[in-house]
Amino acid sequence: MSQDSSASSGSVPNYRPVGGHAVLVEFGTTIDRRIHDRVVKLDAALKAAPFPGFVEAVPAYASILVCFDPLVADHRTTEVAIAERLGAEIPETIGAMREVEICYDPDLAPDLAVVAEASGLSPEDVISAHLSGDYSVFMYGFAPGYAYLAGVPKAIQQPRKPAPIRGIAAGSVLIAGPQCLVSTLTMPTGWWIIGRSPTKILDAASNDRPFLFDVGDAVRFRRISRAEFDARCLA
């Protein structure tokens, strides 16, 4: 993502039609908490006062996809409805604080030493920095339960790997740039694996709440020992 000064300054967002049933509202092009606050605020306003034909809103880092029923609304009426809600006064919502356990033992954190060397830090310094991050859920995407967290401290931020690695275990704690996530499936990844968590992020059997997080939730990581990790996995 590149810097978008107009969106960052609070100007009117950009509207893009998506197919015949949605409008993409773009507030910027960067991973920026101020921009994401505008996304979350519009999402809340649409939930508080849905317009005729509103189906759902899907928030992302710097944009939100607003879906509508084409038999009731169209792109133009949806844009007008969105514009009316941009300045709406809504009660400030504070996301929940969620805790994620993490073990940094070397066999569970194969990239920890590499990140440490690239950052000019010791592995323990990387762990301390990761635990101190100010994390919040900005979006879901890529795979079920993949909650993208912003807030990785600059001291340990690294670009993605040149090529993804296959077969990375579910529960792996991954970082790339300012982003962090806990994988929920065995998947390939080009992100750096610095630990593993036994915390259940995805509950595929639950119809009411399949994901642990909501967009806007704050997340903190808590270090656990290998014995605690093994016990959690057996529970």
Automatic annotation (TrEMBL):
Q: Which SMART domains match?
A: AHS1
Q: Does the keyword Acetylation feature in the UniProt annotation?
A: no
Output one GO MF annotation.
hydrolase activity
Q: Which InterPro entries match?
A: CT_C_D, Cyclophilin-like_dom_sf, PxpB
- The Carboxyltransferase domain is annotated at 13-213
> Which keywords does UniProt give here?
ATP-binding, Hydrolase, Nucleotide-binding
**What is this protein called in UniProt?**
Allophanate hydrolase subunit 1
> What organism does the record attribute this protein to?
Rhizobium brockwellii
